[in-house]
Amino acid sequence: MGSSIYQELGRGITCIDANYGSHGMACFYLLEHGGECAIIETGTANSVANLQQCMADKNLGPAQVKYIVPTHVHLDHAGGAGAMMALFQSATLVIHPKGARHMVSPQRLVASSIDVYGEQAFRKLYGEVVPVDPNRLIEAQDGHILDLSGRELLIRHTPGHADHHFCLWDALSKGWFSGDMFGVSYNSMRFAKGDFIMASTTPTQFRPEAFLQSVKLLQEYAPASMYLTHYGELAYSDALAGLLCRQVEDYAEFAQDDNAQVESLEPLILDYTLGLLADFDPPSSEDVLRTLIELDVRLNVQGLAVWRARMKKTALAT
After folding, report:
1. What is the pLDDT of residues 145-165, one digit of tens each?
2. Cα distance between residue 85 and residue 211, in whole Å
3. 111: Cβ–Cβ under 8 A, 6 or more apart, which residues?
């Protein structure tokens, strides 16, 4: 059933490709329980067709969608929220309090994304970003619980990647819907020797100390699975958490080096990541791996540059 666009993970969880960039770059999740549904992450306006196909195959109706829950307002996670809210009139959007205004008035968010990607690429990736009615929105505080026919989803605020980021804990599956807080791991990063994850420090609110604390919080729940947006279910291990934290710490050290120029960070991070990948004995050539990670490296370096500039500004002010 629809294997090209979605995958059944069990425990009422379906991973749906977000039709973002290319297949396998981003996904979102349909969670079903007791006749009610939650959509966790939304992808973009281009993701709606895949969701509709999945729901049609499952004989699910629009009225069964109770919650639409982006982990944060970056548009590969929340760009489709307005379109989905228009489609599912019984649904409530659940969002971090610091991100709510961007869902109601997305103009600033759209403008900043165009600054990152450029106008042409933005329109291709995201389509139209539709505002959400503020009367259909919950600003979820840390510890807020969503009830899906008795299945509880616990929201924990997890800054570090973005100040407006939260993760959802599903005790039934012992899994975190982790947004970008547990990194990026595409299918081509799953090797015989183990899974590889790459930190995500994209603009504009990367904060390494907060990032490390958020990863520690996720670890405290002893998860079995991490449901990544980039991409799919990942079996949790402390080794993976350690690899992620090591990258965050090293990124911060690279960015704070007074002798390093911002333009030198991209080749530095690229070579650093290729070195980490080499430990996994990947079957692909270095050129293939370079192509796989170069976009994420570029975005990560942009985030590091913003953080570095903020740290220097703070230092000058004190």
Report:
1. 999 999 999 999 999 999 999
2. 30
3. none
Class of residue 114 by CB neighbours under 10 A (exposed 0-12, middle 13-18, buried 19+) = middle
H helices of 163-318, in order, are 208-219, 238-256, 262-278, 286-317
Q: Which of 2, 8, 14 is nearest to 39 (CA)?
A: 14
DSSP letters of 248-280? HHHHHHHHH-TT--HHHHHHHHHHHHHHHHHTT
| 130, 82 contact by CB (below 8 A) | yes
Name the residue among 148, 154, 182, 187 with its Cα closest to residue 39: 148
- Say whether pLDDT at 318 is over 80: no
- Map residue 36 onto helix, strand or coil: strand
Q: How far apart are CA 109 and CA 103, in angstroms?
A: 9
CA distance between the termini of the chain = 60
Helix (H) or strand (E) holding 54: helix 48-57
How many angstroms separate the CA atoms of 160 and 246, rounded? 14
Report the C-alpha gap between 196 and 237 in whole angstroms. Answer: 11
Partnered with residue 81 across adjacent β-strands are: none
- pTM metric for this prediction: 0.95
Compute the distance between CA of residue 162 and CA of residue 185 in angstroms, rounded to an integer.
19
CA distance 256 to 206: 13
**β-pair partners for 195:** 190
Distance between CA atoms of residues 147 and 298, nearest Å: 39
Q: How far is CA 229 from CA 167, 241, 285, 305, in A?
A: 11, 16, 26, 24
| CA–CA separation, 283 and 289 (whole Å) | 10
**pLDDT at residue 2 greater than cutoff 70:** no
What pLDDT was estimated at residue 1? 38
